[in-house]
Amino acid sequence: MFADPTIPGAGLSAASISSLFIVWSACSFVFEIPTGVLADRVPRRMLLVAGPLCSGAGFALWTWWPSFGAFAAGFVLWAAGTALRSGSLQALLYDTLAARGQALQYAGLAGRVRAMGATGVLLGTAAAVPLTAWGGYSAAGAAGVLACIVCSASSAMLPEDAPPRRQAEHDDADPARGGTAAGWRIVVGEALTGLRGDPGLRRVVVLLIALTWVAALDEYLPLLADAMWSGATAPGPAAATGVSMLMVVVAVGDIAGGHAASRTDVTDFRPRRLAPWLLAGAVALAIGAISGHPAGIILVAFAFGVFGWSLVMADTMMQHRIPSGARATITSVVGVGEETVAIAAFGAWAVGSEWLAPTTSFAVAAVPYAVLAVVLMVSSSGATTARASGR
C-alpha cells in the first residue's frame, strides 16, 4: 500500500518506507517500559481496551487519509497500542488466576491465548487476498479497524480480580511525599529489586528474550516457502497457492505449540526441561530448511511449534517469580529485549542474504537454539553436581 503509486498520497520510495519502519521500531522502544510501569499502577483492563483502539486509529489514518505524515502517525499509534497490551495482558491473566488460587493454570491459559492469536493471524492472512480483490485497500483497512474494535470490546469483558493496589495511591494524594512521581519510583524500584535479588528470575528473563530469535524471522517465512516450492515445482500460476499452503502448515505448527503448552504439567517446571526439545527443534528447522523441498516444511512447522511452546513455558516460569507489584514492568523489560533481538535478527538476515539463500539462512538461524539447548544442559548438569558435592 505504501508503495502503490495509484493511491493519492502513497507511492513512497524504499527509503521513505524504511524511515517509517524506523519510526515504528523507535516508538516501540520508547513506549514499552513506561506503559509497563503504567500497567502496574492502573487497572490493566483499561489499557487492554485502549491498546486496540490506538492501533485501529492508526489503521484508519492509513486507509482513509493516506500520506507520509499519516503513515508515520499510524505507526506511532500502532506502537503505542502494542505497548499498552504488552505486559498488561500477562499481568492481568496471572494476577487474576493467582487471586483465585489458580496460578498453576497460567501456562494452560497462555498457551490457548497464543494458539488463538496464531489462528487469528492465519484467518486474517487467508481473508486479506479476497477482501482486497473485492474492495481494495479500503475494504482491508476497514476490516482491520473493525477487528481492533472487536478486540477492544472483548478486552472490556475480561475479569480483573486483582487490579494493582499500591502504597503509591496514598503518595498520589500527598504532594509532600512526591505525588505521582513517587508512585512511579515505587514501581520501578520494585522491578529493579526483583531483578537484582533473584538470579533465577534474571536467568529466565534472558532465556525468554533469547527464545524470540526465530519468532523475529517469521517475517521471512514467505521467502523460505517460495524457495522450497519453486525448487521442487515448475513456475506457474499455482506457485502463489503452493506458497500459501506451505505457510498454512507452519501456522498450524505454531498453533499446535500453543495447545501443547496448555497441556503441559507446570508443577516444578525447570528450564532444563526445555533443552532436549530446543535441540530437536533446532535440528528439525535446519534439516527442513536446507532440504529445499516442500515436504521439509513439516519439519519447519514442528520447529516453530517447539519454539512457541518453549516461549509459553519460559513466560510461565518468569511469571511465577515476578513480584506482583512490578509484573507488567518486568514483562515490558522482556519486550524491550525482544525488540533488540528482532533488530539483530533483521540485521543478520540483511547481511546474510547477500550470500545465502533463504533455505540456508533459516538453517543457520537454527544454530542459536542448538547452542541454547547445550547451555541449558551444561548448566543443569553443573547445578546437579554442585548440589551433590554440597551434601
What are the defining features of this structure?
single chain, 391 residues, mainly alpha, Growth Hormone, Chain: A, 2 domains, disordered C terminus
What does this structure look like?
This is MFS transporter. InterPro entries: MFS (IPR011701), MFS_DHA3_Transporter (IPR053160), MFS_trans_sf (IPR036259). Keywords: Membrane, Transmembrane, Transmembrane helix. There is one protein chain. The protein is an all-alpha fold and 391 residues long. It folds into 2 domains: 1-159, MFS general substrate transporter like domains (Growth Hormone, Chain: A, Up-down Bundle); 191-380, Up-down Bundle (Growth Hormone, Chain: A), CATH 1.20.1250.20. The protein is 78% helix and 0% strand. The chain is built from 16 helices and no strands. It has helices spanning 14-39, 44-64, 68-85, 88-99, 106-156, 168-173, 179-197, 199-210, 213-216, 221-232, 239-262, 275-291, 297-321, 327-352, 358-365, 367-390. The longest helix has 51 residues, at 106-156. The protein is globular. The model is unreliable at 167-179 and 384-389 (pLDDT under 50).
SSE string: HHHHHHHHHHHHHHHH
Q: Count of helices? A: 16
Tell me the fraction of residues in β-strands, as a range.
under 5%
Number of domains: 2
CATH class of the largest domain: Mainly Alpha
Overall form: globular
DSSP summary, beta strand count: 0
Please outline the major beta sheet.
Answer: none
C-alpha Rg, in Å?
22 Å
Strand pairing plus helix content: what structural class?
mainly alpha
CATH architecture verdict of the largest domain: Up-down Bundle
How much is the average pLDDT?
84
What would the CATH topology of the largest domain be? Growth Hormone, Chain: A
What is the rounded distance between the termini?
A: 66 Å
Helix content: over 70%
Oligomer: single chain
> Which stretches are poorly predicted, pLDDT < 50 over at least 5 residues?
167-179, 384-389
The CATH superfamily of the largest domain is MFS general substrate transporter like domains
